[in-house]
Design brief:
Elements: H1 6-27, H2 33-77, E1 81-85, E2 91-94, H3 96-102, H4 106-109, H5 120-136, E3 140-147, E4 153-163, E5 172-179, H6 181-240, H7 246-271, H8 274-279, H9 281-293, E6 298-302, H10 312-333, E7 337-345, E8 348-355, H11 362-366, H12 368-373, H13 376-385, E9 389-394, E10 400-407, E11 436-441, H14 445-455, E12 461-467, H15 470-480, E13 484-488, H16 496-506, E14 511-516, H17 521-530, E15 534-537, H18 541-556
Parallel strand pairs: 6-7, 11-12, 11-13, 13-14, 14-15
Antiparallel strand pairs: 1-2, 1-5, 3-4, 4-5, 7-8, 8-10, 9-10
């Protein structure tokens, strides 16, 4: 029987009228006909109202039923498992998707603790999840390993939702769960691809750096040396043709070669700064600060008290990143000053590059477009590939701060004390002095020949021999005992700095004069600390080498 039964409503109406008529007659037997008619009209109105209320109730009932049907249809067709459990975790309702995910029949799943479907090591965590849902009325979700009756194990995301009752019934927990095997496989594939990408990126950066080093080596070992040799030959020719018109042409050519040497030094520094390779990251950052002055950017550098002892690969990476950040400052920030601060905690090295320029908004910092525009994305990827990190913060008109961090530093001994660069003054020829025996050490035969040609024009100089590296030089010094060794810095087998250290310890009577294409303060510091008397550039050798030898001998007496 339903509200829609018209027969039932008609019967109910008839019985209600009869009963009402009896009640009225019993209560008021002498009621007038007019009063009875009025009462009947009122009853008719009430009857209509009741019918309207019944219609509304029926409509609400239909809507509720329709909603229940839709919910049930969704509940049974959705590809996510739903199960309702009580406070003890017992399952008393589960949808078809849940049964399919668990690989269970309805009879096997009902009246069974849901935790029994979890792997043993996850069972206790699930119980704690349900307790938290009951106590804190929160929607909590975690990942677990579930076990099917067949024994197969699979990952699932499980969410516990507290369902409170308004009727005083015990609270229920609705469990929503989904098989995430495909997602886990996709994540694993993504991780593998990411590792492969990082490896390829590292290989690319390594190849780029190797190519830069190769080009820098070719420039240093061939082009620069050849230019220096040409300069030596020109200097000889100028002395021989002092009064000839050819001397003017030679002077012009000499100026052109000077420009070419300056350009190759700049190119070499951009590709692979010798100061970084020969003296480490700290010296390279100081050198970089001086270089940035030529671009109108005044950079202050703060270094730790002791060398950080970073390996070459990480040193090159950090140097390149700092250089790019400083170039960004010069190009985009409108700042004229910047600061580079290096420090470390344990084995973690931290370099901060900051300026007080115009900066940019925090939103811009987060966008890949901005990161790419300023080369920051490349820096971040290179640092991440090397196991480090890169963070940048900025705000309009308050400048930018960039922080590079990487593991791998090993604190070493104190920096060697900087010694002043000797100033060589022209003292003229001293042919009336006793002969000076000289050993030439350079890995380029043409360079040694050029130096020999220059020095042999002086009657008080005797060339005892030539060596191509520091190791050979030590053997020849032991045999020949020269008074002066003219020592190139960059050589294979044993470089000039290491060889000079051995010479000053084993042969203190021998004077060492350093020679380099790039005689910067770092190279000077290294050679002087090793025991050399002076360091001069190869291009200055024509004019200054002889005088340097004479001055070194006079000092050693």
């Amino acid at each position: 029987m339903t509200y829609q039964s018209s027969h039932y409503l008609e019967e109910l109406r008839t019985r209600a009228k009869a009963r009402l008529h009896r009640m009225v007659l019993q209560a008021v037997p002498d009621l007038s006909r007019h009063a009875i008619q009025k009462l009947v009209e009122e009853l008719n109105v009430r009857e209509v109202e009741l019918e309207m209320q019944c219609d509304e109730l029926q409509k609400a009932h239909d809507e509720i039923q329709d909603s229940r049907n839709r919910y049930r249809e969704l509940y049974e067709s959705i590809p996510i498992g739903f199960a309702t459990i009580d406070e003890k975790g017992t399952v008393y309702d589960i949808n078809p998707a849940g049964l399919a995910i668990l690989g269970s029949e309805l009879g096997q799943a009902l009246r069974r603790g849901f935790h029994s479907f979890l792997a043993e090591h996850d069972s206790h965590r699930f119980i704690l999840l349900c307790r938290k849902a009951l106590q804190h009325h929160e929607h909590l979700a975690e990942e677990y390993w579930l076990v099917r009756p067949s024994g197969s194990v699979f990952p699932a995301r499980v969410q516990a939702i507290l369902v409170e009752s308004d009727t005083g019934m015990p609270a229920q927990i609705r469990i929503a769960f989904k098989d995430i095997t495909d997602r886990k496989k996709a994540e694993e594939t993504s991780r593998r691809h990411e590792v492969q990408l990082e490896a390829l990126t590292a290989k690319l950066f390594s190849a780029q750096e190797e190519e830069r080093k190769r080009l820098a080596t070719d420039l240093h070992d061939h082009l620069q040396q050849m230019l220096v040799i040409v300069k030596l030959k020109l200097a000889q020719g100028k002395r021989l043709a002092e009064s000839s018109p050819v001397s003017t042409v030679m002077t012009d050519v000499d100026l052109i070669i000077n420009d070419a040497l300056a350009y190759t030094r700049t190119l070499l520094a951009d590709l692979s700064p010798p100061v970084l390779r020969d003296h480490g990251l700290e010296a390279a950052l100081v050198w970089l600060a001086r270089q940035m002055k030529t671009y109108g950017l005044d950079v202050t550098v703060s270094l730790p008290d002791k060398p950080v002892g970073l390996d070459e690969a990480r040193s090159i990476l950090l140097f390149q990143c700092v250089r790019e950040l400083l170039m960004n400052t010069r190009k985009h920030s409108e700042a004229t000053e910047a600061a580079v601060v290096m420090d470390h905690q344990g084995d973690v090295l931290r370099i901060e590059v900051s300026d007080r320029g115009k900066g940019f908004t925090p939103t811009d910092v987060a966008t890949s477009e901005t990161l790419s525009q300023f080369g920051l994305f490349s820096i971040r990827e290179r640092m991440r590939t090397a196991g480090g990190s890169f963070e940048v913060s900025s705000s309009p008109n308050h400048g930018t701060k960039s922080v590079l961090m990487i593991k791998g530093c090993q604190q070493q001994n104190e920096f060697p004390e900087e010694e002043a660069l000797s100033v060589v003054e022209t003292t003229g020829r001293m042919s009336d002095k006793e002969p000076i025996s000289v050993l030439l050490v350079d890995d380029h035969a043409m360079m040694r020949q050029g130096l020999r040609t220059v020095l042999e024009t002086y009657p008080d100089i005797t060339i005892l021999g030539e060596a191509a590296n520091g190791k050979d030089a030590l053997l020849m010094i032991e045999q020949l005992r020269p008074k002066v060794v003219v020592m190139d810095i960059n050589m294979p087998v044993m470089n000039g700095v290491e060889a000079t250290q051995h010479i000053t310890k084993r042969f203190p009577e021998t004077t060492v004069i350093g020679l380099s294409v790039n005689a910067g303060s770092e190279s000077t510091k290294a050679m002087m600390s090793a025991g050399a008397t002076i360091l001069i550039t190869k291009e200055a050798a024509v004019d200054k080498l002889y005088d340097s030898i004479r001055m070194a001998i006079s000092r050693s007496r």
